[in-house]
Specification:
The complex is a heterodimer of chains A (about 475) and B (about 240). By secondary structure, chain A is an alpha/beta fold. Helix content of chain A is about 50%, strand content about 15%. In chain A, strand 9 and strand 10 form a beta hairpin. The radius of gyration of chain B is 24 Å and the shape is globular. The interface between A and B is large, with 51 and 36 residues.
Chain lengths: ~475, ~240
């Protein structure tokens, strides 16, 4: 009996081990392809940058920049100021205060001269009641401030959409700073191609970066090791999933921190879904599903030169909370739109993008932990070639480190950011730590994300805020 | 225990890819660093630049074209005679290059047309080959290239050429934002009123949308505005 059980266990462990090996090899190939394609496109975009800027698109398309805010008294003023320093001319700013309990509203009232607004929002999307609407017309562009009952980020965004008067809107997190050319760059795809309905920008960690008049005055890696590792993780992720998927109209995520959308499409779909934690991804997946199932010629793309700087968590507790929220959001988006799963008629969006996010993002914590457990058990039972596994994992770690460094240096070179020699060495050292330790820790965190999950729960993701280095 | 052949192959593959990526990173870093130094060197070598203009294939390089732009800018301020020689030489060289556009990288083509537009190399002197190439490129899928081509066409200052370009753009169904078109029309190097009259006389050749765009342009400078044409709605949404 025991021998029989042992045999069964042996086979099960072998199958799991083999599956895990194939899983990692596929992921390695995907990373390699995405980095090669991604860096090539970044370098090409860099060469085109001069000409794209000649176009002078700062007045062509009118956009509404919606900034949902909840308890952002420390950073909201700088966010609005960074928008006012933009080289873009044709836009309005709409700050939606979602029932803040701090002085978010007062900070804005003190900074800008607001008066009650006569604008009547078109309530095309149902939201919690708006309590007041103010406007300020003595700055470069009109600024609106809406106060509403607390209803979550999605609800705040929907109110912003109702208030907006332009055909496109941009979402911007309240703790984010846009570079001066970010609005021009994110609008560019819309001017270039008529069927673009959404554009994603690039989000980069701002911890340690000094920004003056919406330009990077000094680029340094964050002092916090945790934030530093996230810088590397962001570069790898943006290069791998965003640029590659953009090449076949397969972007399933536009970061909620910075993205542009065509208002009529979003309104027709009922706006952002309240009751989800990943409202940003859910909207994009919803747009794909809607357009594909209705045979609409559309494009959702990614502007790799539209840069938004945002704070990343510097405390482990904040980081864990954030990643759990993201994982739940991912789960909700994938399950709400499972009609996209492996449907040949939907093309590569279904066959590659959706399946990638399903296997390598949503299910990856389970697969990776199971794989590691199987390997450890196999080693303990003397069932595996330990030397091979150790060598493989070391090689895999080295491989991922080099991929991450390629992504990071390609990005810094193509946006002319200078790294100090000390930061250069720090990047290499921390990359190894991020790939081995942090990644595994976050895998465990994401694995636990769905424990005790209840649908319909919404909350603003709160992390400790710090005053940014802004001038 | 020994490693099987396939396992060894896997390990060798990983190592090869790692080494290739490191080489790729170092190459990119070196190329970027050397680029600025090379452009400075090329800019300061005026006789070398004149020699390059006599051998147009040497201009099929972004760095050389950037250096040419720097030379022209310097000469325009400091040495008018050199400026005229460079300008004449560049015009001839660019005309030769545009005869074989398939050999030109997209960015190099953009630079050539950008310089031609900016310095007026083809002002009333563009031959049929250049005009044909411009008309072909005006419907390029990339917006920035279409814009550069239109600038170049406007810099030539010939109403008929611009009309043909607009007709091609219109009939190809390429989406080119009307505001951008209007900005380019304002850059026409000939007489604006003559262009306006020329277009007004041939408005019926265009689609309704294009007629509206051109009517607004014509009316902006006219004493008696033309009737008709509703521009595409741009501020209504949702």
């Amino acid at each position: 009996m025991n021998f029989g059980l042992f045999l069964v266990l042996q086979y099960v462990l072998k199958i799991i081990g083999l599956f895990f090996l194939v899983y990692m090899i596929f992921y390695s190939v995907f990373l390699l392809l995405s980095v090669i394609i991604g860096t090539a496109r970044l370098y090409l975009r860099k060469r085109q940058h001069f000409f794209r800027h000649l176009i002078g698109q700062s007045n062509i398309v009118a956009v509404s920049v919606i900034v949902p805010a909840h308890n952002e008294e420390l950073v909201i003023k700088d966010t609005v100021r960074s928008l006012l320093a933009s080289d873009y001319q044709n836009f309005e700013i709409i700050v939606v205060d979602d029932g803040s309990s701090d002085n978010t509203v007062q900070v804005l009232m003190d900074e800008f001269h607001f008066t009650p607004s006569a604008r009547q929002p078109e309530m095309n999307i149902r939201t919690r009641p708006m309590l007041a609407l103010y406007e300020c017309r003595d700055r470069k562009v009109p600024i609106f401030l809406a106060k509403k009952e607390n209803g979550g980020k999605a609800d705040a965004l929907n109110l912003g959409i109702n208030i907006s008067s332009h055909p496109y809107f941009i979402t911007l997190d309240a703790d984010s700073q846009l570079q001066d050319d970010a609005l021009s760059n994110i609008v560019y795809p819309v001017i270039e191609t008529a069927n673009v309905i959404a554009v994603g920008g690039v989000v980069r960690p701002s911890n340690g970066v000094i920004i003056k008049n919406a330009r990077v005055a000094q680029y340094r890696l964050p002092r916090s090791l945790l934030a530093c590792m996230q810088v590397l993780e962001y570069e790898r992720t943006f290069l791998s999933t965003r640029i590659l998927f953009d090449s076949f109209n397969g972007s399933l995520i536009i970061s909620g921190a910075f993205g542009l959308f065509r208002k009529d499409y979003v309104t027709a779909l009922g706006g952002y879904s309240p009751g989800t934690l990943g409202e940003d991804m859910e909207l994009v997946v919803k747009l794909h599903e809607f357009c594909l199932s209705n045979g609409i010629d559309y494009r959702i793309c990614y502007a790799s030169d539209a840069i938004c700087w945002t704070q990343v968590p510097e405390k482990l507790r904040d980081l864990f909370r954030q990643r759990k929220r993201w994982h739940i959001g991912l789960f909700e988006s994938m399950t709400m739109h499972n009609g996209l799963m492996f449907q040949g008629r939907y093309g590569l969006v279904s066959l590659i993008s959706y399946m990638y996010f399903l296997i390598y993002e949503l299910m990856s914590p389970l697969i990776e932990l199971l794989g590691v457990a199987a390997i450890v058990l196999s080693a303990a039972m003397g069932l595996m070639n330990t030397r091979f596994m150790v060598m493989f994992f070391l090689l895999y770690a080295l491989y991922t480190v080099i991929i991450t460094l390629t992504a990071y240096f390609a990005r810094t070179q193509t946006v002319d950011l200078r790294i100090t020699p000390a930061d250069f060495l720090r990047v290499i050292a921390l990359c190894a730590l991020e790939v081995t330790v942090l990644r595994f820790v976050l895998t465990v965190v994401r694995f636990t994300a769905l424990f005790g999950y209840r649908s319909g729960k919404t909350s603003w993701g709160s992390i400790s805020r710090y005053k940014q280095n802004v001038g | 225990m020994y490693l099987t052949g396939s396992v060894q192959a896997l390990i060798v593959s990983f190592i090869s890819v790692c080494v290739s990526l490191i080489v790729y990173d170092l190459a990119c870093a070196l190329i970027f660093r050397r680029r600025s130094a090379r452009i400075r060197k090329l800019t300061s070598d005026t006789s070398g630049m004149m020699a390059a203009l006599r051998t147009p294939r040497k201009l099929r390089s972004e760095e050389r074209l950037l250096a040419l732009e720097n030379c022209l800018d310097d000469a325009a301020v400091n040495d008018p005679e050199l400026y005229q020689r460079l300008r004449a030489g560049a015009g001839e060289a660019f005309a030769k290059l545009l005869r074989t556009p398939e050999r030109l990288d997209e960015i190099v083509l953009a630079y050539i047309l950008y310089l031609a537009a900016g310095f007026g190399f083809f002002y009333h002197t563009a031959d049929e080959t250049v005009k044909t190439q411009l008309l072909f490129s005006v419907t390029h899928e990339k917006l920035y290239l279409r814009e550069i081509v239109l600038r170049c066409i406007c810099s030539i200052g010939e109403e008929d050429l611009l009309l043909r370009a607009l007709l091609r753009l219109d009939s190809a169904g390429v989406s080119h934002h009307f505001r951008l078109l209007q900005e380019r029309l304002k850059e026409f190097a000939g007489v604006q009123s003559v262009l306006a009259a020329y277009l007004a006389a041939r408005l019926s050749s265009f689609s309704e949308e294009m007629q509206a765009v051109l009517t607004e342009y014509i009316n902006a400078g006219a004493e008696v505005p033309l009737a008709g044409g509703k521009l595409p709605a741009e501020t209504e949404g949702g």
